[in-house]
Amino acid sequence: MTLLCRVSSVALCSLTRPHRLQKQIFLSAKICTAKNEFRRNRSTEAEYKANQWKWGATAAGALLGLGSILVFDTQKRKVTQAESKEEAVPSNPFPQYTREDVKKHTNPTDRIWVTYSGEVFDITDFVELHPGGKRILLAAGGALEPFWALYGVHKSEHVMEILQEYKVGVLIHDDTEEPQDLSDPYSGDPSRHPILKINSQKPFNAEPPPELLTENFITPNELFFKRNHLPVPNINPDEFQLIVDRPPGLKQGKPLKLSLKDLKTKYPRHEVTVTLQCAGNRRSEMNAIKQVKGLEWGTAAISTARWVGVRLRDVLLDAGYTEDVSGTQHVQFEGLDQDITGTKYGASISFKRAMSKDHEVLLAFEMNGEELPKDHGYPLRVIVPGVVGARNVKWLGRIIVSEEESLSHWQQNDYKGFNPNVDWDTVDFSSSPAIQDLPVQSAITEPCPGQTITPDHDGKVTIKGYAWSGGGREIVRVDVSMDGGKTWTVADLTGEQKEGLKWAWKLWSLEAVVPIEAKEITIICKAVDSGYNVQPDTVAPIWNLRGVLNNAWHRVRVTVGEDH
């Protein structure tokens, strides 16, 4: 809180207009007063310390919102002075910019721009004042919305009112900024937030900074990891039809065809909170042992969302299937995404899982309260809770119930695990089953590898991370070691720990004591799920040529600050 007041003072000194100064002092005073009120009324000193971090987070969040405003004073004055010299003031004095224009402003030399709600702001001069350090640069060249979704304190009427005074432009959509190149099947792909770490451009695959994953239980759509195998299709929702093959021998043998409107009106809506994880999450650690074939995923190829749609079970029942139909062992999903040869993405799950009420397999058309983004399967996708992301087919176009698994490459010749000694000369993909449920997993998101940590006056630092297990097995414990695995402490499970969220991750944190006189330490985490499944301690024994299923103990090496 002392830091907040110091930073607030510095920031306020940069203001020149009396009314702006009053507004800034008003909000800063509200934060300080709230903390002091809590201090007076706390029942114990321990309670105060336990809640102290909340005030810091609230204050930092408020200043992030305010900080984006402070630096516009010079620009605003210039605009005002220029306008005063004009005989006629235009109704809209702000210049217009496209998202491509904004993307060019990501450093102090070119100015650091961000957007919010269709408007453009320049935050260059505020970076040094930001209480959260350079984390504010994560939004450089892109939108603030995903970050404000993580820090809800920004969405106050007061912050919004002040922010409106400082825009430097308005955002427009330029139909010519992303021209369709018929020779490039990826030219119609949607724009993405520049914060994402791109692992491949075509097809597009990217993950957010790991430290943002544990800022909120639900991952904002813009920050949700992107895993595409083919170009993103452009689908007209008014012409969209889902085709569901009928059971053999049924009188009405023609396929069931459902429009998007049919799906939204004929069947009961169902919502489920689900964590999706790519089979290659943490592949980069396998590459450190021996090079594998696949994208260089870090620890952030995992995200959580609230999905809304209809149960696959209800649609299959409507098509004429029953739970005891013989010869129906698999449900195949075919996407509308395809390569230049017409080959479409496909995958399958067991018929038993598809028809199970408990497994909650969903045909989803909403994600976190919005229609599905294009990168996440608009207008319809499959959500298979507890199962590897590869089976959650996007841009769903057809459902086939069959005695066989999907014959697609991604079901038959990919997403399978092998013995560490199997190489590309000896591999036989038919000898290994397709990955479905994923094993127990955990990772450290803060601090980051190579970071310098500074313990507080009690010699402690905050460690954060996530844990998840496939098949609906909930996380029951996360253990953390600050001395390379010699001793362990149980972390606190945080976030939404309600019943009915068995398909979602658990976020965790620990106020951990840093070993005395340590200069460098290795922090380790490992999780235990409800089936008492545990993570292997090292990567080497589970290494495989595709670099999938890495769930070894996660290790982060950091340096301890000299003040310790």
β-sheet strand percentage: 15-25%
Strand order of the largest sheet: 1-5-4-3-2
Q: Characterize the overall form.
A: globular
* Rounded Rg: 26 Å
Span between termini: 21 Å
Q: Percent range for helical residues? A: 10-25%
The secondary-structure class comes to alpha+beta
Quaternary structure state of the chains depicted: single chain
The number of distinct helices, counting runs of at least 4 residues, comes to: 13
Major sheet description: 5 strands, mixed
Number of DSSP strand runs: 27
Mean pLDDT: 83
Any low-confidence stretches, pLDDT <50, length ≥5? 1-89
Topology:
Blueprint: H1 2-13, H2 18-41, H3 45-70, H4 73-85, E1 96-97, H5 99-103, E2 106-107, E3 111-116, E4 119-122, H6 145-150, H7 157-163, E5 169-171, E6 197-200, E7 205-207, H8 210-213, E8 226-227, E9 242-244, E10 256-258, H9 260-266, E11 270-277, H10 283-287, E12 302-311, H11 312-318, E13 330-338, E14 344-350, H12 351-355, E15 362-367, E16 370-371, E17 381-383, E18 396-402, H13 409-412, E19 441-446, E20 452-453, E21 460-468, E22 475-481, E23 489-490, E24 492-494, E25 506-513, E26 520-529, E27 554-560
What does this protein look like?
22% of the residues lie in helices and 24% in strands. With 564 residues, the protein is of the alpha+beta class. A 5-stranded mixed beta sheet has the order 1-5-4-3-2. A 5-stranded mixed beta sheet has the order 10-9-18-13-14. Residues 1-89 have low confidence and may be disordered. GO terms for molecular function: heme binding; molybdenum ion binding; molybdopterin cofactor binding; sulfite oxidase activity. This is Sulfite oxidase. Its main location: mitochondrion.
